[in-house]
Amino acid sequence: MTTKVIICLDGCGPDYLAGSETPNLDAVAREGFHTIGEAVVPTVTNVNNTSIITASLPETHGITTNYLLDPVSGQECYMESADYLLTRTAFRHLADRGQKSCLLTAKDKLTSLIRCEPD
Q1: Angle, alpha carbons 23-28-30 (nearest 5°)
Q2: Considering only CA atoms, which of 107, 97, 40 is closest in space to residue 116?
Q3: Where is 77: in which H helix or E strand?
């Protein structure tokens, strides 16, 4: 089985990387595949990372902002739970095929949002 690695550098523009020495990232790009993604509006972490890991737009995956105003309570709710997802993540698709996956993130909110959620 081929190992695949998806690297998402949230908030890190290509010009910043071009001006820095990044031999390991350069090797990954050279030996594999790389692309510079287009942002999804609004350009906030939860929306864009969910779009990447579900391969869908906010209107499909359900994460449309970082905060949601609950119309009943009038309280702001932080959209960091997989309960808000309307579609499946790549992690779920891999698990369904008996394949292993791993999420490494520096942002705890992404752990609960885009993890391999149970059905």
Answers
A1: 90
A2: 97
A3: strand 76-78
This prediction's pTM: 0.80
Residue in the block written with tokens 């609960």: 112
Q: Which of 2, 3, 35, 45 is catalytic?
A: 45
Q: Note the pLDDT tens digit of each residue in 23-63.
A: 998 998 899 888 888 888 888 989 999 999 999 999 999 99
Per the annotation, the verdict on 105 as an active-site residue is no
Q: With 0-12 CB in 10 A as exposed, 13-18 as middle and 19+ as buried, what is 18?
A: exposed
- CA end-to-end distance (rounded Å), the chain: 25
Question: In angstroms, rounded to a whole number, what is the distance separating the alpha carbons of residues 16 and 39?
Answer: 16
How many CA atoms within 13 Å lie on the side-chain side of 116?
15
pLDDT tens string 64-77: 999 989 899 999 99
